[in-house]
Write a structure and sequence with these properties.
Length: about 325
């Protein structure tokens, strides 16, 4: 295998189908061959940063211009942007707490699968000898999953950012990732409530007393989930405030957990997520293990050629993704 110091870096490494820049580097310079050495904790991209002595964080972080000291080192810059955006996306990523599976595809057309078993199918009644075994039918959805391209245009002329420290520039890139994560959460909430276009909106339950959330409303919601498990609640900010004022939520351990982690546990054992993307007074209850599928076309996409050529005035950073219902009955909406 080639040493990381001898790999020829070029723009075309970003155009390999099905692989990002780091994966292409790993195929040329596998991390496995560095086991037992001082470089074993670095991936192939980080070894290239070491090769060109580019420090992207810490007290002695380099300036953006360090990437463009040579033609080869400039090829590392788009991956730095992608990783910084990805970091912000992951830090603000709440959607993964809602999805049962993430499906990666390589086209814009995708049909999910679904199954609508009857109550008898769910209970799996005893089958007598010689009798026909009940069937669970799995089929493709009638309509395609709607994929949305979400992203931001990076407008940062090279003359403006070339002398900026990389760790400071990364803060701005992190925020682009955070904005994409917020857009994904909005899309996920929309599909959970209204369905994915295949006639599968969530069932709704009205509060016993209009305008007031009571503990009994949550219990009725919980009771509707047999045979599914109500393990996740997504609530609008005002609904979360009403929950916090309910007596069963006043457990001292709940208060300690909220003060220490910012996460509120519930007496029903479900995790609680606050989201401003829900209508006022709405609570989504779901079984996160079988309710929602995230469909993603590729990873964070960067206009690498513009970044390498220092044409950052109009460089797009995007992610293409959508959501599909798996089992429609695994989602319920409480309206207060």
């Amino acid at each position: 295998m080639s040493s990381y110091q001898n790999i020829r870096l070029e723009k075309g490494m970003y155009g390999v189908a099905g692989q990002n820049f780091t994966q292409v580097l790993e195929s040329l310079d596998p991390t496995e061959q560095y086991r037992g050495t001082e470089l074993e904790r670095l991936d192939a991209y980080q070894r290239q940063l070491k090769r060109f002595d580019i420090k992207v964080g810490g007290r002695y972080s380099d300036q953006v211009s360090k990437f463009f000291a040579t033609t080869e080192s400039s090829a590392l810059f788009p991956e730095y942007v992608r990783r910084s955006v990805r970091k912000g996306l992951e830090e603000q990523n709440v959607v993964d707490q809602l999805v049962a599976v993430v499906t990666q595809i390589d086209s814009r057309d995708y049909r999910s699968i679904t199954s609508n078993p009857s109550q008898e199918d769910k209970e799996l009644m005893q089958v007598a000898e010689g009798a026909v075994i009940p069937a669970t039918t799995v089929r493709t959805q009638d309509n395609l999953v709607r994929l949305h391209k979400r992203g931001r245009m990076l407008v940062a002329p090279y003359e403006v950012v070339q002398y900026q420290r990389l760790d400071l520039f990364a803060v701005t890139l992190n925020q682009i990732g955070a904005a994409i994560a917020t857009a994904h959460m909005r899309d996920a909430v929309d599909v959970l409530i209204h369905g994915d276009g295949n006639g599968n909106p969530a069932g709704t339950v009205a509060a016993g007393t209009p305008g007031t959330l009571e503990y009994g409303d949550l219990l009725r919601l919980w009771a509707l989930f047999d045979p599914y498990e109500m393990n996740t609640l997504v609530a609008s900010p005002d609904a979360v405030l009403q929950m916090a004022e309910l007596a069963p939520f006043q457990n001292p351990l709940t208060g300690l957990n909220f003060a220490g982690t910012g996460q509120m546990s519930t007496p029903l054992g479900a995790s609680l997520i606050k989201s401003r993307h829900l209508p006022e007074g709405a609570v989504i209850a779901l079984d996160k293990n079988c309710a929602l599928e995230k469909v993603q076309c590729g990873d964070v996409s960067i206009e690498y050629d513009k970044l390498i050529d220092r044409q950052m005035e109009r460089a797009a950073v995007t992610v293409t993704a959508g959501f599909a219902k798996i089992f429609a009955d695994a989602v319920k909406v409480l309206t207060v």
